[in-house]
Amino acid sequence: xxxxxxxxxxxxxxxxxxxxxxxxxxxxxxxxxxxxxxxxxxxxxxxxxxxxxxxxxxxxxxxxxxxxxxxxxxxxxxxxxxxxxxxxxxxxxxxxxxxxxxxxxxxxxxxxxxxxxxxxxxxxxxxxxxxxxxxxxxxxxxxxxxxxxxxxxxxxxxxxxxxxxxxxxxxxxxxxxxxxxxxxxxxxxxxxxxxxxxxxxxxxxxxxxxxxxxxxxxxxxxxxxxxxxxxxxxxxxxxxxxxxxxxxxxxxxxxxxxxxxxxxxxxxxxxxxxxxxxxxxxxxxxxxxxxxxxxxxxxxxxxxxxxxxxxxxxxxxxxxxxxxxxxxxxxxxxxxxxxxxxxxxxxxxxxxxxxxxxxxxxxxxxxxxxxxxxxxxxxxxxxxxxxxxxxxxxxxxxxxxxxxxxxxxxxxxxxxxxxxxxxxxxxxxxxxxxxxxxxxxxxxx
Length: 445
Ligand code: GCO
Hints:
By secondary structure, the protein is of the alpha/beta class. The protein has helices at residues 18-21, 32-38, 55-69, 80-83, 93-108, 124-128, 136-152, 165-174, 190-208, 229-252, 270-276, 309-312, 329-341, 370-388, 431-443, and strands at residues 11-15, 73-77, 112-118, 158-163, 212-218, 222-224, 282-286, 291-293, 348-352, 393-399, 418-421, 426-429. The protein has a single domain, classed as TIM Barrel (Alpha-Beta Barrel). The protein has an 8-stranded parallel barrel, surrounded by 4 helices. One of its GO terms (cellular component) is cytosol. Substrate binds at residues 20, 119, 163, 288, 399, 406-407.
């Protein structure tokens, strides 16, 4: 099989997140997603993470699937309210025990655990006190990090602090389509400042314990809809928000440039910037697609508009979710990161990349997901080319190992290499599972 070359020791992985897979919600504290899902109309099919994939109980079976795949790494997240039910104070031993068992089970299968400390599921009590709009949440996050590190740090040398802080701020606090469902527009920006601070505080804790601290963000190459100055300016404004809001402070110690957004942007105190600068030992890049940006229309409240990429760029296929499939966007993105951050850019890992498509099971009940195979093949070949070109990428974690709760889309979008029947919890590997296993085998040869 012709598989391009990847660096020695390259991490072959898959990813999940606590709220999306664990279930067992009665065994932990409440998170903002519990309350959000209970509000009618928030989640497409009325679903929630109450049971999800029941990973909390079925992780041994799922680790078995990972072993069959030949994964060398598994990215998952810890549920903060499972470890500290209200987000402060003494840990719940049952929660810590669960992650302890999971880590041992992964290590026993030869799979390196890559935990993310926070993937959108803030303890509800902290949200009631202001959530990420409050500076204190960053200090509480540092306490929680210490608890997790104390328990798992002897076996886990590398951690991701926050997942997609941009998406959390934008969807959760600015537009209200994710929990906590607040639609504050630009008044959501303190949620960026405090997540940056939380990352820095957690990184200090992890480093003091001899561990590495990574930050995972959703990154997108921004494409202006035309070369008109207005479209180009709108694209720059969007790039500053989506890609640079978190990376400029962390990598360059520079406050985000939000000049296009007007006066409501909060200041970053100098001592915060000093703590934030250089606080990442590595970056997780979650890449799904490029973003087309045009000048805003008359009634638009923000300095950009986001027209449909696939409708604009002829011949672009889309996933079942309607997302454009652009493998070349990945090397493009990696090249832009190198251009902008140069020597300040730490090692990278692709911590998410994947697609959802509706299933068309054949007569025998098999899931032959040719589109997912084409998606993965295209992105992995593009990644290999970027690495050959000098990008320092150490691993690839596809989203996702198994179908799971897709936030506001509920269970309507399936991203898994493994199909999950949510009525029975039966797992059925799709064709892409076997394809990825063969790819890993060939690449590791
Ligand atoms: C994230 C992502 C995942 C999604 C995936 C597909 O924040 O890391 O939102 O949780 O499930 O990106 O949309």
